[in-house]
Amino acid sequence: MNHARKHVVIAVAAVSLSITGCAKKKVAAAPPPQPAPAVTPAANARTETPRSVPAAVNRGPAASTPASRFPDAATRARIDQLLAKIEDAYFDYDKYSLRPDAMAALQADSSELRDILKDYPDYKLTIEGHADERGSAEYNVALGDRRAAAAKEYLAGIGIPSAQLNVISYGKERPTCTDHNEPCWQKNRRIHIVAQAQK
Questions:
Q1: 149: how many CB neighbours lie within 10 A of its CB?
Q2: Neighbour tally for 100: CB within 10 Å
């Protein structure tokens, strides 16, 4: 039995030494490889990213510059033709909501006009609001402004860029008809669209 006990003690001691020896090797070997690979890729990634981002940012404005030009003479002439085809939109007395006939007038040739204007974002149109002679000057300027704003909202809704549509109200100051009756007043309650003068 003494002999068997010695073998057991020797076997237990050998196993203990091998476990202790392996544990020390694993602890000592694991930490050094981790810091070196983790630091190197992160440093490389940081170095490469800033170089590629400014290059892309610098290319952006150069590409958009041609789109902000004004149209040439032939294109401006076509815009003027389209604006001449779009009839003035008329309003009921003391109202600024668009009637069906006003919407139809604004819709005419607006798809081609929309497509042209999208290519020239610096080119703008002005929507003029007008009123008839009845009421105070201040009231009619406010009414003309609301009429022009209603037309702008409609045109923006059908795709003409809102940023290219300015509004102005002339109230009762620029009548197309000077008679003092309803048929004449109806002609003065309108919006009119013109190309904005270039500077």
A1: 17
A2: 7
* 171 phi and psi angles, rounded to 5 deg: 55, -125
| pLDDT at residue 72 is higher than 70 | yes
Q: Which two tokens stand for residue 163?
A: 């940023």
Write the Ramachandran bin of 175: left for phi over 0, alpha for psi from -120 to 50, otherwise beta: beta
Contacts of residue 186, defined as CB under 8 A and 6 or more positions apart, other chains included, come to: 90, 132
The residue extents of the domains of the chain are 2-65, 70-195
The band of 33, judged by pLDDT with boundaries at 50, 70 and 90, is low
Structure tokens at 155: 């045109």
Superfamily in which the 70-195 domain is placed by CATH: OmpA-like domain (3.30.1330.60)
For residues 194 and 125, is the Cβ–Cβ distance under 8 A? Answer: yes
Give pTM, 2 decimals.
Answer: 0.64
